[in-house]
Design goal:
The structure is a single chain. The chain is α/β, with parallel strands linked by helices. The protein has 12 helices and 18 strands. The protein has helices at 23-32, 66-81, 102-109, 120-126, 141-149, 165-178, 196-205, 237-242, 271-284, 302-316, 326-329, 336-350, and strands at residues 8-17, 20-21, 38-39, 48-49, 89-95, 113-114, 117-118, 156-159, 184-192, 227-236, 249-258, 293-295, 321-323, 352-353, 368-369, 374-375, 380-387, 391-398. The strands form 4 sheets. Strands 1, 2, 5, 8, 9, 10, 11, 12, 13, 15, 17 and 18 form a 12-stranded mixed sheet that branches. The relative contact order is 0.19. The mean pLDDT is 92.
Length: 400
């Protein structure tokens, strides 16, 4: 297991989602090819949610902030799995909106209405980060907390780019290590929108399915909302070898783009997605023919799946195996790119192309969408993450 001196290895993985907690459990869930969801206890037209089934350890510093509780769990798993590496550590995490309940929104907003007008100055003062309360769970606080817990001396940042956030956080960590600015990077994402305000926002947007998610299926009508967190420990290969660490796989390329097309819809021809994939291939110095499997963004929305399919066909042709795991674990929003990065690494490590749960009758797409899992050795896997506002990120993982 030599590898190149400047390779970036993945030496630790932590994950928690609707299938449960832990990498081995997640891999077993992928192989079982079934839906991990439960009935939604909501008056909204949503039947299923892919939520974490077991109680989550609450953290006093993050009252009512479920997504941060998930992240702390995944981070602890990953750091332990990597063998508690020492060195200059950077942290990059993708996240979504604050975890806000209707009562908390009422507590935040209503006291600042004066004579029928919203007093922004009073609200700004009340949001002082030194105060503690549900309304203080702002996106950047989790990385600040992780920085203290893990004594990170390198660069640390929060990525807040919708459903591409976690993938772009992984890309940031990869680049920091490639430049030699850190020895280790803790990267990933966390999100939980499975609360009344989160559900309502996606219902209003028309993005949620009223039943199950069916990526690339003719009858697809939206996604199933999920929650979770995944964290990867990246290391410069030289640093990892010096302490005897063994890698799952390596990160070999990243590419990003912005559609600048629509606030919620992707470019109908997938132009931004195509650019992200081309840039990832160029960054990895790979030809499209060298990719053995694509873990698609595949949300099960009518417009999104069509746009992504067109982009994949233009870049890779129509024979490469493509699948989406969102039919099994839901769309975990800002955490999706990290959870799907773990699925991509698992495809390499386990020698298996994952199937698309919910796909029964493929729509008129030319892509080679996989219904069932199949054993197949793959050297390189590309994972797509595309977010609202046309924010796109593609990651390429390779065998070591």
């Amino acid at each position: 297991m030599q590898g190149k001196k400047n390779d970036i290895w993945i030496t630790g993985i932590g994950i928690i989602c609707s299938a449960g907690s832990g990498y081995d459990h997640f891999c077993s869930a992928l192989q079982s090819h079934r839906i991990f969801s439960s009935p939604a206890d909501s008056s909204l037209p949503v039947e299923q949610l892919a939520v974490v089934p077991s109680p989550i350890k609450a953290i006093a510093d993050f009252p009512n902030d479920r997504k941060s509780w998930l992240a702390m769990d995944a981070a602890a798993q990953a750091f332990s799995d990597a063998g508690y590496p020492q060195g200059v550590l950077s942290i990059f995490m993708g996240t979504g909106l604050s975890s806000i309940t209707p009562r908390q929104m009422e507590e935040d907003l209503f006291p600042h209405i004066r004579d029928g007008r919203f007093d922004r100055v009073a609200m700004a003062k009340d949001l002082d980060v030194s105060k503690v309360g549900p309304r203080r769970n702002l996106p950047h606080r989790l990385v600040e907390h992780l920085k203290g817990v893990y004594e990170a001396k390198g660069r640390c940042a929060t990525n807040f780019s919708a459903c591409a956030a976690a993938a772009q956080a992984i890309a940031e960590g990869y680049r920091v290590l490639k430049r030699g600015e850190s020895d280790i990077a803790m990267v990933g994402g966390h999100d939980s929108m499975a609360h009344p305000m989160g559900l309502l926002s996606f219902v209003v947007l028309g993005a949620l399915s009223n039943s199950f998610c069916r990526p690339f299926d003719r009858s697809r009508n939206g996604f199933m909302l999920g929650e979770g967190s995944a964290v990867l420990i990246l290391e410069r290969a030289e640093h990892a070898r010096s302490r005897g660490a063994k890698p799952y796989a390596k990160v070999v390329g990243t590419g990003s783009s912005v559609d600048a097309w629509n606030v919620t819809a992707p470019h109908p021809n997938g132009e931004g997605a195509e650019k992200a994939m081309h840039r990832a291939l160029r960054d990895a110095s790979l030809d499209s023919s060298e990719i053995g499997y694509i873990n698609a963004h595949g949300t099960g929305t009518p417009i999104g799946d069509e746009a992504e399919s067109k982009a994949i066909s233009r870049v890779f042709g129509d024979s490469i195996p493509v699948s989406s795991i969102k039919g099994a674990f839901g769309h975990c929003i800002a955490a999706a790119g990290a959870i799907e990065a773990v699925a991509s690494v698992a495809a390499i490590e386990k020698g298996c192309i994952w199937g698309t749960v919910g796909l029964e009758e493929k729509d008129d797409f030319s892509i080679n969408a996989q219904k069932e899992p199949q054993e197949k050795s793959v050297k390189y896997v590309l994972s797509n993450s595309f977010g609202f506002g046309g924010q796109n990120c593609s990651l390429i993982f390779g065998a070591v």
